[in-house]
Amino acid sequence: MTGEEIVRTDEFKKCLDFHGHLCPGLSIGYRAAKAGLEWLAENRSADEEMVAIVENDACGCDAVQVMTGCTFGKGNFIFKDHGKQVFTFFGRKSGKAVRVSLKPDALAPSERHRDLIQKMRNKEASEEEQEEFRSLHEQGSYVVLERPAEELFKIEPTQVAFPPHARIHASNPCDRCGEMTMATRLEEVGGEKICRDCKEAKPS
Ligand SMILES: [Zn+2]
Ligand SMILES: [Zn+2]
Predict the structure, then answer these.
(1) Cα of 198 from ligand 1 centre, angstroms
(2) What is the total count of domains within the chain?
(3) Strand, helix or coil for residue 17
(4) pLDDT tens per residue across span 83-123
(5) CA distance 87 to 96
(6) Which CATH number does the domain housing residue 149 bear?
(7) Per the domain annotation, does 164 fall within a domain?
(8) Are residues 85 and 135 in the same domain?
(9) What is the value of pTM for the model shown?
């Protein structure tokens, strides 16, 4: 399929709806999730819950959530603030895992594209430049969607030790603001048990 055809598929449209625009980043997340799902389909038992770990919080993560069904709220979508285009997918029970990392030369925007990204960020792009940016962004997305997965990513089995569900704790009121706070998040300061908001707030 061509990039333009992929963009029109139902599954990609869902990613687009969720994220709000077509961009190379979203396309990377889509391809990474596909690669991960394919690997897991061959290597883990089908009824096992899957977990995704993302090492950035950029555009691609939206496609990962849509494609895998792993979400923040369910606790099976985990963000590690490593600033890398690395996505790990695994089965919760078996721990069978695959690590999908973007190759250094996989996404190389031209100098012009980089300039325009910067101008867009600084809100300095003229109408014409905005148009050019959108077209380069679109072309960049198609390139990502069309390239063979092995050219985009290093895809390798890995091991993940993942703690079992332990997300529900009792809540107690914070001694300062009175708001109910998960007991494990209250910290003792000067004999009071206070929440993180109160701890971070400047003392009055
Ligand atoms: Zn985006
Ligand atoms: Zn408080």
Answers:
(1) 35
(2) 2
(3) helix
(4) 999 999 999 888 889 999 999 988 878 899 999 999 999 99
(5) 14
(6) 3.30.1330.130
(7) no
(8) yes
(9) 0.86
